[in-house]
Amino acid sequence: MELNGLKVAVVGATGAVGNLMVKVLEERAFPVSRLTLLASARSIGKTLGFHGSEIAVEELVEDSFEGIQLALFSAGGGISKKFAPIAARAGAVVIDNSNAWRMDPKVPLVVPEVNPDAALSHSGIIANPNCSTIQMVVALKPIYDAVGIRRIVVTTFQAVSGTGKRAIEELRAQVLDVMQGREAVRQIYPHQIAFNCFPHIGPFLENGFSEEEMKMVNETRKVFEDAKIRICATTVRIPVIYGHSESINIETEKPVSPEEVRRLLDAAPGVRVIDDLSNAGYPVPLSAAGTDDTLVGRIRIDPSVENGLAMWVVADNIRKGAATNAVQIAELLLSRGRL
Ligand code: NAP
Ligand code: 3JN
Question: Does residue 307 have its Cβ closer than 6 Å to ligand 2?
């Protein structure tokens, strides 16, 4: 296939996120002249469809990036740590979905609706934040800009697709096991996930928080360029396949009414307000799944603090939370003549 466009590689193309990256490149008609699909040796022999062609998956090796202009990575932090600099040295712009480079001061951490200009200062690698961070900052940035935010308390309700394709299979298999009276088999998670939930995402750290919780704290501070904003996160895994939900309480610098917040969010890029209580109108994972919007509802005063607001935010964790955000960064670079 020879089309006008860029030579693009997707690293981790056979995974939950990588697969969707290929789909999102196609859906958004991103200009691709040649697509290289990379994964482990286990995937040799597999193919993926792209614009009507079947493309063979290749094994990721050090020479994989010759001639590549854009490399989208989603094969985990270890692979990104080793191969993103190799791809960048070969001349590619890397957009990395892992935790490997997010907090490196030389690497921009970008959500196009929130801090697009940061992307322009890259030196070969740009990082995508964690999915839970992305949807939170998309929803909060318009409020942050209008009235300032001093403090955030967030509890997440995260879908199993955030853990990858094997976790999706684990939930499906456990649901069948339980419904058919068998014991649920656990392989990925520390507890049964079917008909259950647990406040445990990533390893626990010495401060008692999980790694996922501290990602939300540190990444939000970096994206907002605000080292002082106070944040407390609790991240919870729930038996949903696609769509992370977040209950968010904020303390703003200046007072703001729920009506004004609805108006600000209605005008914000990438945000859809669904807040119609009389018709059970609020976001749910099943309405976010398969879309690229960040859905916000249940916007109300939090009377427990001065200038308090509470809201409920839902997005498709592997679309806006990962694949779509990465492709949007590439589109942003292209539109600014930086790709
Ligand atoms: P997944 O479904 O388990 O897929 C993992 C992918 O990595 C597969 O394509 C796999 O290839 C590939 N891979 C594994 N080991 C490899 C190796 N040694 N060499 C080359 N490729 C290798 O996981 P996922 O859910 O797509 O997530 C992948 C990564 O994306 C995560 O580890 C995380 O860093 C990132 N992620 C980010 C977010 C976010 O919040 N922005 C959300 C989810 C995931 P095989 O099929 O050949 O094994
Ligand atoms: O669990 C989720 O819902 C999101 C998971 C993200 C994730 C999973 C494994 C490794 C990450 C991430 O994006 O932070 C990583 C990682 O790159 O460290």
Answer: no
Does residue 301 sit within a domain? yes
- Whether residue 1 is predicted with pLDDT greater than 60 in this model: the reply is no
Summarize pLDDT for 28-46 with one digit per residue, the tens: 999 999 999 999 999 999 9
- Ligand 1 atom nearest to CA at 133: 40
pLDDT of residue 3: 53
For the chain, how many structural domains are there in total? 2
Cβ–Cβ under 8 Å, residues 69 and 92: yes
Active site (catalytic) residues? 131, 244
Is residue 2 pLDDT above 80, yes or no? no
On whether the CB atoms of residues 177 and 275 are closer than 8 A, the answer is no
Whole-angstrom Cα distance, residue 324 to residue 129?
12
Is 219 part of a structural domain of the chain? yes
Residue minimizing CA distance to atom 18 of ligand 1: 40
Instruction: Please work out whether the CB of residue 218 comes within 6 Å of at least one atom of ligand 2.
Output: no
Query: Is 80 inside a domain boundary?
Result: yes
Q: What is the mean pLDDT of residues 173-182?
A: 98
Least Cα distance to 256 among 126, 120, 114, 145 occurs for 145
231-241 confidence digits (pLDDT tens): 999 999 999 99
Yes or no: say if 152 and 246 are a contact pair by the CB < 8 Å rule: no
CATH number of the domain bearing residue 200: 3.30.360.10
| 259 CA to centre of ligand 1 in angstroms | 41
Ligand 1 pocket, residues with Cβ under 6 angstroms? 12-18, 39-40, 42-43, 60, 74-77, 79, 97-98, 128, 130-131, 162, 164-165, 321-322
In this structure, the answer to whether residues 169 and 306 fall within a common structural domain is yes
pTM above 0.90, yes or no: yes
> Could you give the residue ranges of the DSSP H alpha helices within 148-241?
165-179, 211-223
Give me ligand 2 centre to Cα 213, in Å: 11
Whole-number pLDDT of residue 4 = 79
Residue 91 falls inside a structural domain: yes
The residue segments making up the domain with residue 158 are: 133-316
Q: Which of 1-5, 117-121, 162-166 has the lowest mean pLDDT?
A: 1-5
DSSP H helical ranges for 195-272? 211-223, 258-266
